Amino acid sequence: MVENLSSNEFINFVNKLLDETGEIALKNFRNKRSLSLKGDDSPVTNADREIEKVIRLGIQNKFPTHSIVGEELEDLKNVSNFKWFIDPIDGTRSYIAGKRDFGTLIGLMEGDRLIGGVIDCPALGERWISFNENLTTVNGEKVLCKSVQNLEDALMATTSSHEFGMKKWRAYQSLEQSVKVTTTGSDCYNYGLLASGYIDLIAERLTAPHDYLPLVKIIEGAGGVITDWDGNKLVDNQKHVYVLAAASKELHQLALEKLMKAI
Questions:
Q1: In angstroms, rounded to a whole number, what is the distance separating the alpha carbons of residues 172 and 6?
Q2: Which residues contact 205 (CB under 8 A, 6 or more apart)?
């Protein structure tokens, strides 16, 4: 395990960090808004910055040689082969609108290998963690994806299809028309729900590695599959990635074929 920590010790370290950042998120939630827009016109709040600072400080104190990539602050390049990925508030639009389905994402890679992922939704009291092979937990209890066999029986989620280019939008529409039900919104919370067996498919565009790498570990630890829309593994140097997550290999393949046929 990471630098001689057992998985339980490592999980305890992450849980302690997230207990602290969850308090920050909830302290500012539905409170006076301190909203600004970044260069790409996406919203950011003081809570985003404060949470990332707390997580960075915790990592630097515990693992001073590790590198850190976060959404709000400059990348920290270091000598270790370990690299952390932080999205302090995934779903900032939900957060500022008073919706509870925002979350904090943390991922950890050792070289090219993803070894840890977290989705923490403090307003909902649900925290998914995976730092072991083939194991994802929510609040300490093991979860598993549960999949239907056919697209026409599937429940699919997407945060928003408005960011798709026309070509990808047509492909998404083809897939959406093939499933039974589609739900929109909820950002990272959808991936926790897929890991817990409530959602069958997710198709959407995500911006950067800190948005999707933590989700990969959560989905795969629960027995699901997550790739881009060409079926390729998600890696840490991609931007604006079209993501397809499914509760089983079989359903993923059906959805992938539907998307690729329409592109």
A1: 42
A2: 163, 164, 168, 240, 241, 242, 243
Domain carrying residue 135: 2-143
In the chain, the N- to C-terminal Cα span, in Å, equals 41
> Based on the domain organization, do 95 and 155 belong to the same domain?
no
Residue 175 in 3-state DSSP?
Answer: helix
pLDDT one digit per residue (tens) for the chain, 263 residues: 445 667 888 899 999 999 999 999 999 999 866 656 555 546 678 899 999 999 999 999 999 999 999 988 999 999 999 999 999 999 999 999 999 999 999 999 999 999 999 999 999 999 999 999 899 999 999 999 999 999 999 999 999 987 788 889 999 999 999 999 999 999 999 999 999 999 999 999 999 999 999 999 999 999 999 999 999 999 988 889 999 999 999 999 999 999 998 77
What is the pTM assigned to this prediction? 0.94
CATH of the domain at 125: 3.30.540.10
| Identity of the amino acid at 115 | I
- C-alpha 68/C-alpha 55 separation (Å) is 10
Number of domains in the chain: 2
Pairing of strands 155-158, 201-206: parallel
Q: Burial-class residue 37 by CB neighbours within 10 Å (0-12, 13-18, 19+).
A: exposed
CATH number for the domain harbouring residue 252: 3.40.190.80
